[in-house]
Specification:
By secondary structure, this protein is an all-alpha fold. The chain has 2 helices and no strands. It is elongated.
Length: 65
């Protein structure tokens, strides 16, 4: 039988998932919490799609006067 040694034990599922995906442990925890709160029919939300863009235009009226 082959014995495979893991860098992170499977008992530490959050650390193991973070190492495998390249994401932080906090992100893995947030995804886990969100997946527990939604129903089976819903999809996980992706961040940033509902952000409002602030206008970067500066209106200057009669600046020289």
């Amino acid at each position: 039988k082959k014995v495979i040694e893991l860098k992170i034990p499977i008992l530490n599922a959050t650390k193991h998932a973070a190492e495998a995906t390249g994401k932080s442990e906090a992100t893995i925890c947030k995804i886990g919490k969100e997946s527990k709160t939604i129903s089976n029919d819903e999809k996980l939300k992706s961040p940033g799609k509902n952000r409002t863009n602030s206008s970067r235009k500066i209106v200057i009226d009669e600046f020289d006067k």
